[in-house]
Amino acid sequence: MKQLKKNGYIRAFQTAFPFTIPVMTGYLFIGIAFGVMYQEKGYNFLWAILMSVLVYAGSGQYLAVNFFAPGVSFLDVVFMTFMVNVRHIFYGLSLLERFGKMGKKRLYMIFSLTDETYSLFFITKVPKDVAEDKFLFAIALLDQIYWVVGSAIGALAGALIPFDAEGIDFAMTALFIVIFVEQWLAGGNRIPAMIGICAALLLRLICGSDNFILPSMICIMVCLIAGRKYIAEDEKKEAVNHAG
């Protein structure tokens, strides 16, 4: 029985790996960028690795690098971290049912949920010969491994080779853009994407660049909930047309 369970995980990781290759290429590079930035602050490279293992917050880690500057209060750290990661509240709400079926693994799934992993959960179809909980777990763990390895490489390189880290933090933004473009070009229902774009642009103009994230997420959530029936019907039509 244990052997079958073990083989089930092996099969899940083998099946999940090809789907995570785009994230791997992105995470290795932006993980390296984070490691370089972190080490440039004068910390031992081991701290960068430990942060990626225990915190694993992507853009939150990039932001955290600036928290080590003098004069940044604890309240500033809490508020800015919340503002950057508030979108995960909405991510979690949409995954309650799937994570609820995963037993003890759900704790790690909650911890390991990033933008890229979330995207893979929704654009990747679970193969018929693999259990969904094992497949999703494999995706989440592989993505974190890529991030930790990238952070380790960057921190070690930063310790051994002098780097000018100016502008390197744009790597995270670039990855978000690439993932969005890939999903857009893949076709399918683009209504949620258009809602997100319109809400973000409108509230960026109204609230300003420093305060638009939370209002945008709330607006997007309200629009998606209000139009969920129409969106679902449109998705069914797209699926029928694609099958035909």
TrEMBL record:
Annotated protein name in UniProt: AzlC family ABC transporter permease
Signal peptide segment: none
An example Gene Ontology CC term for this record: plasma membrane
GO biological process: one example: L-valine transmembrane transport
Protein species of origin: Roseburia zhanii
Location in the cell: Cell membrane
Family membership: Belongs to the AzlC family.
Lineage per the UniProt record: Bacteria, Bacillati, Bacillota, Clostridia, Lachnospirales
PANTHER family in the cross-refs: INNER MEMBRANE PROTEIN YGAZ
Bilayer topology annotation: Multi-pass membrane protein
Primary location: membrane
InterPro entries, per database record: Brnchd-chn_aa_trnsp_permease
Keyword field contains Transmembrane: yes
Keywords assigned by UniProt, alphabetized: Cell membrane, Membrane, Transmembrane, Transmembrane helix, Transport
Pfam families named in the record: AzlC
Transmembrane region(s): 16-38, 45-65, 77-95, 144-163, 170-187, 193-226
